[in-house]
UniProtKB/TrEMBL annotation:
This is BED-type domain-containing protein. GO terms for biological process: post-embryonic development. Gene3D superfamilies: Zinc finger, BED domain-containing. GO terms for cellular component: nucleus. It comes from Acanthoscelides obtectus. GO terms for molecular function: DNA binding; zinc ion binding. InterPro entries: RNaseH-like_sf, Znf_BED, ZnF_BED_domain_contain, Znf_C2H2_sf. Its main location: nucleus.
């Protein structure tokens, strides 16, 4: 075995060839085999490249052995950069350089790269270590090596004309594993970006880069990639990416003529209050709906109207959209209403939140059955034995079907209460059987209470459907509000004639009363009425009576006249005549009721017109 114990101190000699008898050094000049071309001069790139093959010595004779180690320092003649640091920085001006990873600039006045080196050491420590802290076995040393690199005997690698090809390939593979090419700055930057994208889009914690499984995966896919720390991701890369995305979104918002804002307040587990603000707009040039979160600020003071107003104004000013706000949608809290009024924007209450208030207030009429249902669900959730018994009964009653689990409601979401009641109503027989087999550990519902559950589910289903529809960000929903409200009231009136339980009838009465309070005069709301009459699916059919329809029509005409600066004539026959709107919904849909009413109105109008002609 031979080992390398000495590298030439002369920087003009960088080629070392190990043969069976001697060590060769090669002057740096244009090489005869044209693998690469170099000439003597400054050594600027410290990346170490390894090659395997036959080399030509200074005297022109072939090296006896087939194995040698070549350490090369490549030159950058174009820029004249002599520091290792330029692998990670690009020169912007004579006195400025930009980090290729973070895109931030630093001063290099007087030719000093100290600032660049400090940045690399603090923000990109793995890259810094890979360049400035090379191991003795992979760098050129000016001193004799203390730990020689052992190389096989040259005779072991002497080529023979009949040597099997697979043996040569195996030797090359071994050297490739021993001499990997360092990762380029561009590829490192790309991988950093993809990891950050993974964390952002999939809501992963920054600490994922410290997980053993993640590290093992990256090391297998890209062994030379220096995995960034979570602090580097959160403090450096995230800020740089945020700046890029923000500028891109700003350019997009400039293309929107009008913007609608929605606000949503929430509280973290640490009881910290936040207010999220989202922008909704249409890009006129491509006619595409877009939504973007503009900010989520912490409410550090009391949630007064003036404080919220200041935060909102600061946010829209930062995004440069002050003159584009058309309407702002908030919940029904008095401080939010007052805050929007102070901004001077048009305010509109969140319809889904309004439905939540209506249903929450109405559910008080059936509080006793709901409490009993919650006790039953809580018992089965606490007891694994009871849950297994419930599953066993379900499998016995309906073999081959997957057993269903009981759903626990969430206080702040009435939809979850509906889901809980519906699941219990569907599992009445298995629940009663399981409770009996377990010797009545929890109070069962009475016969009358079991009859109430399916009726309550039928009453609340339309509200759930509307809540889900009006919470969508992928389509315009405001034109549906008047038509949806009208259909809900008609469904409640029709259900009231079929209900058998007094509590169910009380629930319907309470819902209708709350509905009339919350949506009083909604048909004469400027935004609601205009959007409904301009939607070709609704027009006249969206209004409860002709007076509301005429009010909306006149409002649209007046606005057109203001826009055109001259009187406009609207052909009433065209504005009133419309095909029946078609909605592909379920049989219990609120829109089925709307379609029936529209068909009836169209048929009646046709008969009246025919009689008049006769």
């Amino acid at each position: 075995m031979h080992s390398i114990q000495y590298f030439s101190n002369d920087l003009n000699y960088a080629v070392i060839a190990i043969s069976k008898h001697r060590c060769y050094t090669q002057p740096i000049h244009h090489q005869s085999d044209r693998r690469f071309a170099m000439r003597s001069g400054g050594l600027l790139d410290v990346r170490i490249l390894y090659y395997m093959g036959i080399w030509v010595t200074h005297d022109g004779s072939d090296v006896v052995c087939r194995y040698f180690l070549l350490a090369v320092k490549s030159l950058d003649f174009m820029e004249g950069k002599r520091s290792k640091i330029w692998q990670f920085f690009s020169k912007e001006t004579e006195n400025k350089a930009k980090c290729d990873i973070f895109q931030c600039s630093y001063s290099i006045k007087g030719g000093s790269t100290t600032n660049l080196k400090k940045h690399l050491m603090t923000k990109h420590r793995p890259s810094y270590d890979s360049v400035f802290s090379l191991k003795p076995s992979t760098c050129i040393s000016n001193q004799p090596s203390q730990q020689p690199v052992n190389l096989p005997e040259c005779s072991q690698f002497q080529a023979s004309s009949n040597e099997p090809k697979r043996k040569k390939e195996a030797q090359q593979t071994d050297i490739a594993l021993f001499t990997r090419k360092p990762l380029s700055a561009a590829r490192e930057k790309k991988i950093n970006h993809l990891i950050l994208k993974l964390i952002i889009k999939d809501l992963q914690p920054f600490s994922i880069v410290e997980d053993s499984g993640f590290i093992e995966l990256i090391n297998y896919l890209e062994p030379n990639y220096p995995i960034p720390s979570r602090y580097m991701l959160s403090s450096g890369l995230l800020d740089a990416q945020f700046t890029l995305v923000k500028e891109k979104l700003k350019d997009e918002l400039k293309r929107a003529s009008h913007i609608c804002l929605t606000t949503d307040g929430w509280t973290s587990r640490a009881t910290t209050s936040y207010q999220a603000v989202t922008a909704h707009y249409i890009l006129g040039d491509i006619w595409e709906m877009r939504s973007a979160l503009l900010g989520c600020f912490e409410c550090q003071e009391r949630h007064t109207a003036d404080y919220i107003k200041q935060e909102l104004i600061h946010l829209v000013t930062d995004w440069e959209i002050n003159d584009k706000i058309f309407v702002c949608v908030t919940d029904n809290a008095s401080n939010m209403k007052a805050a929007i009024r102070l901004t001077g924007w048009e305010h509109f209450p969140c319809v889904a939140h309004t439905y939540n208030l209506i249903v929450q207030a109405s559910l008080q009429t059936i509080q006793e059955p709901i409490k009993k249902v919650k006790c039953i669900v809580e018992y089965f959730h606490r007891s694994s034995i009871a849950t297994k018994k419930l599953y066993a009964v379900q499998e016995q009653l309906k073999p081959g079907q997957k057993p269903l689990k009981l759903i626990m409601d969430v206080i702040t979401r009435w939809n979850s209460t509906l889901d809980m009641l519906e699941r219990v109503a569907n599992l009445q027989e298995p629940i009663e059987a399981a409770i009996g087999l377990l010797h009545n550990p929890v109070e069962n519902l009475s016969e009358n209470e079991w009859r109430i559950l399916p009726e309550v589910v039928k009453i609340l289903k339309p509200f759930k459907q509307l809540t889900e529809e009006f919470s969508s960000e992928n389509e315009v929903t405001i034109s549906k509000i008047l038509a949806g409200n009208s259909s809900v009231l008609r469904i409640l009136n029709n259900l009231n004639n079929t209900l058998t339980c007094d509590l169910s009838k009380q629930l319907v009465s309470k819902l209708k009363a709350e509905f009339n309070i919350r949506f009083k005069n909604s048909s004469r709301h400027q935004v609601l009425s205009k959007s409904a009459i301009l939607d070709p699916r609704f027009k006249r059919q969206a209004f409860a009576d002709d007076s509301c329809y005429e009010y909306a029509k006149n409002s649209v005409r007046e606005e057109l006249e203001r826009m055109m600066a001259k009187p406009s004539f609207v052909n009433e026959s065209e504005s009133e005549d419309t095909d029946s709107p078609m909605f592909d919904e379920q049989q219990d849909s609120i829109w089925l009721e709307f379609d029936r009413r529209t068909t009836t109105m169209s048929t009646t109008a046709s008969k009246t017109s025919a009689n008049n002609n006769n």
